[in-house]
Amino acid sequence: MDSTQRPDGPAAETRPTGTTAEDLSPASPASAAETVGANPRVRDLIDELCREVGPRPSGSAAEAAAAERLRARLEAWGLPAATERFRTTPFGLQGLLATMGGCYLLALGVYFVCPYGALSFLGLAILVLLAHRALDLDLPALFLPAADSTNVHGTLAPAGERRRTVLFAGHIDSAFRMPLLARASWFPWLSRGMLLFFVSYLTLLGLSVARIAAGHVGGGPRGPVEWALLGLCGLGAAFALLVLGGMIRRDAVPGANDNLSAVATAWETARRLATDRPRHVEVRVVAFGSEEAGLKGSRDFALRHRDELRDAVLVNLESLGQSGRLHVLTGEMLAGARHAPEALRLVEDAARDAGIPLARKYLTHGLTDAASFSTRGLPAASLIRLNDAGFLDHYHSPGDSPEHVREEHLEEAVRLCLAVVSRLDREAAG
Questions:
Q1: What residue ranges do the domains of the chain occupy?
Q2: What is the pLDDT of residues 106-130, one digit of tens each?
């Protein structure tokens, strides 16, 4: 295995200075004069990256070019910065969706002639899902093209003795377009459809086991109850086809809110602190690559820096510029992650200090990079802004563009990050 593919290997590549032609889009990183202004808007960075770099799918040259621009900004502010490369599978999420939906459709198709075959396809889907969620094994990725992705991070040393470390992070890559997620009003129906799919899956699994147990492996009578249950399975198949047709695309979206809003917030926090450093708190900012392919960048960072992060706390930032209210996530169901109580307390206390309304939420759909830390025992929490329906606007759609990112919401997020540093610094001072 090449050393750049090992998340925790000592030979993992870093690029604190310079770049190569293969990493850059035609636009070059902004100069120090462009990045350091008297009172720049937080949104200026989003506008620049969307205009001059464009969509940044996982493992692309555009993603790497955006990372180099971010590194250049940190160094222009006098902060040590580095980029780190790792291997990813750009279509990892699409591969997982295709495997789960495809296995179910195949299972339903062969059920009528061979329940053993149906059981095998359903078992394969369970194996793939368990390997992905519990063991970090992306089995579909074995059959998909791989690429290099990029994390970039910088460090702001405290003015005095370092006693605590806090990280502010967001992902730099943008998603492939998923038409089914374009409207927030569709989310409740998609959630119901997902529940229907899992019920249908379990129903087909039970029917397959029942027919095998009854010895009807090559046909046999079918009563009205079985036909009714198969009708339910047919609805699950319709949902699987809808997902396969409406969520697997190869064109990437601008990704202004999801998630350049987070990167811009973290970088602006670093810029302001660079001229007013905390006394005892080291502040690190990170832009993860390849989040949309399955949290690949945050997983690499957590593994690569695991030892030095044990006494740090991550405040992950996600989609902060849209309409709605800020929430701190207590956990994430799809990853089986429960975020650290001390991280939640820190963020909530800081929000009260800054007079910022903040709600709690347990995320039942989607994932954030905080899960890569919490599932490995590293203290983390995740901040996200959700609309009144509890979802994201213009999610994974071309509408996720700079004009839909509100500067006042970014400023509020920056104030909260600064309040986190201030509270942590007071606690560290005793």
A1: 39-86+149-178+252-429, 92-142+185-246
A2: 999 999 999 999 999 999 999 998 8
Q: What is the pLDDT of residues 314-350, one digit of tens each?
A: 999 999 999 999 999 999 988 889 999 999 999 999 9
Single-letter amino acid, residue 213: A
Output the furthest CA–CA distance in the chain (Å, rounded): 79
Peptide bond into 151 cis (omega under 30): no
Residues 6+ apart with CB under 8 A from 206: none
Q: Which CATH number fits domain 39-86+149-178+252-429: 3.40.630.10, 3.40.50.2300, 3.90.1210.10, 3.30.1050.10?
A: 3.40.630.10
DSSP sequence for 202-254: HHHHHHHHHHHHHT-SS-----HHHHHHHHHHHHHHHHHHHHHHHS--SPBP-
**With contact defined as beta carbons under 8 Å apart, do 159 and 305 qualify?**
no
**Could you report the per-residue pLDDT of 164-210, keeping only the tens digit for each?**
999 999 999 999 999 988 787 888 888 889 899 999 999 999 999 99
